[in-house]
């Protein structure tokens, strides 16, 4: 009976292993949204695990995907072989006891395998709830008819919510430093400093602690929240009548235009840097915030998750500004060259 129940799952696993993932455009999008440490992304067992998760989500929902284990397949095969040999050599009285123990062990392993799945589901639900709340609060902050005091409070709450969401995502994916000493903390920060969640966490801290109220800064927050909400709705509510009637088209548009949203965010982030530079000549200037934000822009320029968009925007700015400097203000060539060397360093 146990073998009959396992046979369909064996066939499903064989089908999942034989599936052509490279020619499925959904796999590339799915894998690009998996945030795992670089040393794990190159492991074949990790890639195979997420391929089975992809196959379960998009091809065959009945496929059972077990949690990743640290033991090797050869090690896990030895106990199963020995247990099968011992069960074959046992007498008729021992067989019911072996069957009962097998059922209990399989039930235990199934329960253990379902725990990480429920944890991941809970994490996704928490992220969806926080980002949906951030999106509503941010829209409330930029709506022109909202009272000024309520708008300012919603403005700061949207940054706080995004900071909490980013920090929770970093903790869920990377955990804590292995030890609370300088070397371990330095290694930990080197692993997370180029991630999108860390960049947004610093971005939110930069504005939530400032007395300036730049509604323009909410554009990247809105784009990030919109992407998270749309992906969660498409993956978990695609069979809902309410979703298919009112939300499917907007969610499909968001998922098919993530590049457009990223380009919009990069334009807004660079525009904020220029606004902060101009604010230095007003009574609302904040030199520390401006310096910190330009360091963040430099990180965005070099980090792989945002480099393509920021480098494209800066290239457009250079094509416009450089000819004007050479023609009308050649004395600025030396300081501009020094700034470029610092920026590219």
Oligomer: single chain
Radius of gyration: 26 Å
Structural class, by secondary structure, is: mainly alpha
Strand content: under 5%
- How many β-strand stretches? 0
What is the straight-line distance between the termini?
65 Å
The helix fraction, in percent, is: over 70%
Low-confidence stretches: 1-5, 70-120
Major pleated sheet? none
Query: What's the mean pLDDT score?
Result: 81
List keywords for this structure.
345 residues; mainly alpha; disordered N terminus
How does this structure look, described?
This protein is an all-alpha fold and 345 residues long. Among the domains are: 8-59, no CATH class; 123-308, no CATH class. It has 15 helices and no strands. The chain has helices at 2-18, 25-32, 38-41, 44-58, 73-89, 94-142, 148-174, 182-192, 196-208, 218-236, 241-256, 258-279, 287-302, 304-328, 333-344. Helix 12 (258-279) runs antiparallel to helix 13 (287-302) and helix 12 (258-279) packs across helix 14. The protein is globular. Mean pLDDT is 81; it is low at 1-5 and 70-120. Its main location: membrane. Belongs to the PER33/POM33 family. Residues 70-113 are annotated as: Disordered. It comes from Theobroma cacao. It is a multi-pass membrane protein.
